[in-house]
Amino acid sequence: MQISSLGGKQAELHDRIERLCDPTHVRALPESEFARLAAGVGLTTIHQVRSTLDHDLDEWITHGAPGKAARREIISLMESCLADDRVGLHVRHEDAKLHFTHQVVVFVFKRA
Q1: Domain spans of the chain?
Q2: Does CATH number 3.30.70.980 belong to domain 8-111?
C-alpha cells in the first residue's frame, strides 16, 4: 500500500499528480489513518514493514496510461518540484531522467 507521510499542500499536490496518472486514485492515506481504519473494522496489526519504491517517472506514468495533456502536466508538476521537493517525493534527476520515491508500508493483520 502506498502511504503518505505528507500533510497539507504536499499531500494535495501528491494526490493531484496521482489522479492525473490514474483517475481511480482517491488519495494516499497516512499510515496512522490506514491502521486506524483497519482497527475500526476489527483488525489488529501483527506486523508492518516500511519501505520505499523508487520510480523512473516515464515508466511510472506508463502504468496509468494518461492522455498526452495529463502526461505533460505530470512532468511539468514534477519538474517544478526539483528545487524544493514541494511534493515530498524526493523528485530528482538520475541518468538524465526524472525519478521520485514513494513511501510504502505492508501491513499484516489478524481479525480480533
Answers
A1: 8-111
A2: no
